[in-house]
Amino acid sequence: MARRSGPAQRRWPQGRDEHAARLARGPAASCGRSQRHLAAALADQGYSVSPNLVGRLLKDLGFSLQANAKTREGRQHPDRDAQFQHINDAVERFQRDGQPAISVDTKKKELVGDFRNGGRELRRKGKPETVRVHDFIIPGKGRAVPYGVYDIAANEGWVSVGIDHDTAAFAVESIRRWWRHRGRKRYPAARRLLITADCGGSNGARVRLWKVELQKLADQTGLAITVAHHPPGTSKWNRIEHRMFAFITQNWRGKPLFSHKVIVQLIAATTTTEGLNIACAIDAKPYPKGAKISDHQIHAINMKTDTFHPEWSYTILPIRNRAASSK
Q1: pLDDT at residue 327, as a whole number
Q2: Is there a single domain that holds both residue 196 and residue 313?
Q3: Out of 72, 89, 165, 242, which residue is the most buried by the measure of CB atoms under 10 Å away?
Q4: Above 60 in pLDDT, residue 321?
């Protein structure tokens, strides 16, 4: 069917490439992207066009409204891929030897209360869950800080839901609780533990308290704890993100997180067709920020660093093995 030719269309000059550039670079850069605004901007330049005609012309010329695309990862570390391979090799080596390998991280902190939670859930038509308009913290409820531990081989997880700060002490306590409730039962003959973690946050490669707390854990469990950090800016590749946290987010979409108990229940109810199983508990202990770690404490850590990026890969041995490790 031929399009109707109106006065506006007859007045539109020839040379579509030129006018496509005018639409995309001129009016679009200085006004709203609606067809009405584009038509008004072109009218100011002496062209008589209707909003509908603008829309048809843009479509014919291959233009459309598009959202930003997150594709630029910024400057990458030159050894990014090599560290990924190093981590994968370590995971495979530990699994072959029957030793535990876990992925850890802190999930996004959540406001506790009747706040909007992204996503939708099935409810009777016209009866959505009512929540607060503003996201102001509720005194007495605060925030939930979920720290997760994902057992890579077993496809099992542990989440400690903290009520205080996300510190290295909290992170290591979450790993300790995973070991106490799940890890040592699944790996009774374990002598070593591999932890894969982000390069930043409470379990960051530069966090002194993280290493001090891991030394305590090594002393308590007798495990040699190897840590392999992902390179900076690659947290989304941490296994726990897409193998556990993503499914927790899906499971509680559209559900207000009314209380810490509700959060624990929703996390523990998260499963997948591949058999993911998660245990969850509240950690009500206080974890104050700003702990100062002295150089003496750092030097007392029984740590061996890897030859490849020692700042990312290291092993902390139980203190009782110090003499043997120095031979």
Answers
A1: 42
A2: yes
A3: 165
A4: no
In the three-class reduction of DSSP (H, G, I as helix; E, B as strand; rest coil), residue 281 is classed as: strand
C-beta of residue 136 within 8 angstroms of C-beta of residue 169 = no
Please name which of 195, 155, 188, 191 lies closest in space to residue 172, comparing C-alpha atoms. Answer: 195
Per-residue exposure over 162-181, b if at least 16 CB sit within 10 Å of its own CB, e if not: bbbbbbbbbbbbbbbbbbee
Lowest mean pLDDT among 68-72, 215-219, 278-282, 291-295: 68-72
* Domain total in the chain: 2
CA neighbor of 271 nearest in space, from 157, 141, 128: 157
**DSSP assignment letter at 236:** G
Residue 25 predicted with pLDDT over 60 = no
Structure tokens at 276: 């993911």
Strand partners, 281: 160
DSSP 8-state class, residue 202:
G
Residue 31 belongs to domain spanning: 7-60
3-class state of residue 174 by DSSP: helix
